[in-house]
Sequence to fold (254 residues):
Amino acid sequence: MNERLDGPALLEPMPTDWQRALAVVAHPDDLEYGCAAAIADWTDGGREVVYLLATRGEAGIDTIDPAACASLREAEQRASAAVVGVPTVEFLDHRDGVVEYGLDLRRDIAAAIRRHRPELVITMNHRDTWGGAEGGGYWNTPDHKAVGRATLDAAGDAGNRWIFPELLTEQGLEPWNGVRWVAVSGTTTPTHAADAGPGLERSVKSLMEHKAYIAALTDEDPETYVRSFLTGNAQQAAARFGGRPAVAFEVFPR
Fold:
């Protein structure tokens, strides 16, 4: 990685020699807040991306009962994914807000990796805080931490026939050793970045599909709120990516 004398290291370009990606997060809207601009550009280039959500986000809106909220947020997520060229969205139905890191979650994610056979797996910040490597910043949510950590582990589980052998014997899912990278979005210790420019406008439209959630989250005009958040993040990463608006990732090779 190229070093700067006056600040953090420059970000390397994201790998491009892949065809299929699986994006695994906890809730509807996680990917839209994190990396939809990159996904829009990737699908434009002919790559395949599948979304896998641990929950349906049913505990995310205080004024809507979870039973009603789940179907609403699922519909918003599917519409949001379609905006950036993602036709397949799957839900694991773990309970929103109380997702537990453990064997069940690892098995469910490993099964999805075996089904979809991605070279790139994407997930979200798995660390305790939104701060740097030494901590600090806002406390991360338990769901984000559990799903991020389980995804990193499941990328290895998916390739080992003796871990969760029932995936083969009961579901017919052959081991998949083809995951080459796990890329973590929403990290404050990024190593790589993807150009956000080509997909930025569609990432704004994608996040705006979460109408009910955004309406409950802020009194600000929805487009103003969404555009400010996404362009601000892209510009922040630009300082380490040749001045280009970017989506930052922490990439773990496998």
Notes: The first helix runs from residue 30 to 34.
